[in-house]
Design brief:
The protein is of the alpha+beta class. It contains 13 helices and ten strands. The radius of gyration is 42 Å and the shape is rod-shaped. It binds 3,4-dihydroxyphenylalanine. Keywords: Aminoacyl-tRNA synthetase, ATP-binding, Cytoplasm, Ligase, Magnesium, Metal-binding, Nucleotide-binding, Protein biosynthesis.
Length: about 350
């Protein structure tokens, strides 16, 4: 006959020795499973005489209860130990600083931000955005814009020329955004109202000039667009861009081959204390060139100057960015120095709009 005391000692010590839930489950199956040692004992009760059963029954049932109880208690202990282990493994020091998310660490370059700002302002006035390639034909960069062959104005632009192709044609890195005027007038019908932001190139480098810089061109063509409209648009732009209520502008006669008459525009400012402010002061600062589109330019685009007319302007984006955000030197704009970008850059989610404010 099985020695119940021995079996009990064996089983309890196995329960005690089980190191994890899987080991404990194996002990449970070996004792209380279908073919377990205790289950087999229980099965023998049926074949016993009533006297035997009276004596052995409580002992075997008692053994079962004891083993079951020990397994349950061990299970709890193991679960607690597992929880403890997990808690200490996943411990978090809540006093540590929160790491910055990529979208709050990244910065938008001031040029990109200023292009967004001026696009928001002109979009509000009904302008759409047009673009053209940086590598441009000599024809679109100069000839179509009424620069005669050999005209000194071509030299004024310090042009970067590409090596001539097999036909002897020399492409250029566009010296201004004005060729996109031609691209627009030959691909769209008036009324036209576009701004053209983009990269431009000239052989020039000092504190306020870099070989690659940015311009934004404006072009309005319809039946009666005139200088008064242009002055209003430019004034509204300056007020919105520099975020001032009043701005005085001065239109000085000038020359561009593609406009007649042509003007350069200065805005009033104060330079007191080395800091430039708009809407006050007695100084002037040049910010753009403009004029009525030359009839030859209209003709070069297949438009009839007796039917349509319009105006255009070109403005240095880098220049107005430096002015607005007080950046004294242009060269670091293109040096990709993260320290500079951290200082002068914008948060990616500060998207300029006229409703929420250009700069928050
Ligand atoms: N393209 C000129 C420049 O780069 C700027 C300019 C002047 C553009 C007058 C225009 C304009 O559209 O009408 O110096």
């Amino acid at each position: 006959m099985t020695d119940l005391n021995q079996l009990e000692r064996d089983l309890l010590s196995q329960v005690d020795a089980a190191g994890d839930e899987a080991a404990l489950e194996a002990v449970r199956v070996s004792a209380l499973g279908k073919k377990g040692s205790v289950s087999e004992l229980l099965k023998t009760l049926g074949a016993m005489t009533p006297e035997e059963r009276k004596e052995r029954g409580p002992l075997i049932n008692g053994l079962r209860d004891k083993v079951q109880g020990a397994i349950l208690a061990k299970k709890e202990t193991l679960a607690e130990a597992a929880l403890e282990a997990r808690l200490s493994a996943e411990r978090i020091d809540v006093t540590l600083p929160v790491p910055e998310a990529p979208e709050s660490r990244g910065r938008i370059h001031p040029i990109s931000q200023v292009i967004e700002e001026l696009t928001a302002i002109f979009a509000d006035m009904g302008f759409s955005v047009a673009e053209g390639p940086d590598i441009e034909t000599d024809y679109l960069n100069f000839t179509a814009l009424n620069f005669p062959e050999g005209h000194p104005a071509r030299e004024m632009h310090d042009t970067f020329f590409l090596a001539p192709d097999e036909k002897g044609e020399r492409k250029v890195l566009r010296t201004h955004t004005s060729p996109v005027q031609i691209r627009t007038m030959t691909s769209q019908k008036p009324p036209i109202r576009v701004i053209i932001p983009g990269r431009t190139y000239r052989h020039d480098s000092d504190q306020t000039h870099t070989p690659m810089f940015h311009q934004v061109e404006g072009l309005v063509i319809d039946r009666q667009a005139n200088i008064a409209h242009m002055k209003w648009i430019l004034e509204e732009f300056c007020k919105a861009f520099f975020e001032v209520d009043q701005v005085k502008m001065r239109f000085r006669p000038s020359f561009f081959p593609f406009t007649e008459p042509s003007a350069e525009v200065d805005i009033q400012c104060s330079r007191k204390g080395g800091e430039i402010r708009f809407g006050e002061g007695t100084d002037w600062l040049e910010i753009l060139g403009c004029g009525m589109v030359h009839p030859n330019v209209l003709r070069n685009c297949g438009l009839d100057p007796d039917e349509v007319q319009g105006f255009a302007w070109g403005m240095g984006i880098d220049r107005i960015a430096m002015l607005k955000y007080g950046m004294p030197d242009l060269r670091p704009f293109f040096e990709a120095d993260v320290r500079w970008l951290n200082h002068y850059g914008f948060r990616p989610l500060d998207i300029p709009s006229l409703v929420s404010g250009l700069t928050s």
